[in-house]
Specification:
The chain is α/β, with parallel strands linked by helices and 260 residues long. It has a single domain, classed as Rossmann fold (3-Layer(aba) Sandwich). It has a seven-stranded mixed sheet with strand order 3-4-2-5-1-6-7, sandwiched between helices. The longest helix is centred in the last third of the chain and has 16 residues. The chain is globular, with a radius of gyration of 17 Å.
């Protein structure tokens, strides 16, 4: 078993990226897949959303990028088969350190020793196209793009796709667009339907059929430190992410061979 590495990326904030990272990871684990969620966003919301305090300075994913073994940083969650590498605000300084000495392969190298333990490794990247996000894209086999069903959400998609093409043309030729996940969908609204239709036309075959609705339980779950399926399994949010996980497992390609 060699893990498929998936990065959740979108340079715009408030698109449901971390919500998707937590709940897709938990849903895959509920399908009896071994999953590691790497919190690679200095905000640390994947960490707190799974019920952990942000780690002490120079711990978590910052320590991972500074040579600490991944094995020593992994925490078990209340979800069987889901583990996490947490992060704290100190990860923000990594942006400047990587910029001063650009290195794009460090995250991939850091995760390689534990890849045989997992089916999937999900990386929650920052809402920016800086050096931290570029490291995440270079480490990944596929990129998943959460995008809300809102008009302005379309604006940044072209810029993100251009960044992905540059990564494909340079440090990670094997990177694939795993799919676009439509989030914050409002039932019975013309705008949401119009945005979804436009995205599906622009990226045929690359938009998941499962859409993630706006849902009170989904919004409440992080404050309880739980994925929504462990907060309210019957909620629309929980069922949507379980459906997304089933769909994702069905469409994701085998992990491509990577040159060292």
């Amino acid at each position: 078993m060699t893990a498929k590495i998936l990065v959740l990326a979108n340079q715009k904030g408030g698109v449901g990226k971390t919500t998707t990272a937590i709940n897709l990871a938990a849903s895959l684990a509920m399908m009896e897949k071994m999953v590691l969620l790497v919190d690679f966003d200095p905000q640390g919301h994947s960490t707190t959303g799974l019920g952990f305090p942000k780690p002490d300075r120079r711990a978590g994913s910052y320590a991972l990028m500074k040579g600490a073994p991944a094995e020593a940083l992994i925490l078990s969650t209340e979800v069987p088969m889901l583990q996490v590498i947490p992060t704290g605000k100190d990860l923000a300084q990594l942006e400047f350190e990587l910029f001063e000495m650009p290195q794009l392969q460090e995250l991939r190298k850091a995760l390689e020793p534990v890849m045989e333990r997992f089916d999937y490794i999900l990386i929650d990247s920052p809402p920016a196209l800086g050096m931290i996000t570029l490291n995440a894209l270079t480490a990944a086999d596929e990129v998943l793009i959460p995008m809300p069903c809102e008009f302005f959400a379309l604006d940044g998609l072209a810029e993100l796709m251009e960044t992905i093409r540059r990564i494909q043309g340079g440090p990670n030729p094997a990177l694939k667009l795993g799919g676009i996940i439509l989030t914050m969908a409002e039932e019975r609204t013309n705008l949401g339907s119009a945005v979804a239709h436009e995205v599906r036309q622009a990226f045929p075959g690359k938009v998941f059929q499962t859409t993630i609705p706006r849902n009170i339980r989904l919004a409440e779950a992080p404050s309880h430190g739980k994925p929504v399926a462990f907060y309210d399994l019957r909620s629309k949010g929980a069922q949507a992410y379980l459906n997304l996980a089933r769909e994702a497992v069905g469409v994701m390609e085998p992990t491509p061979a990577r040159e060292n």
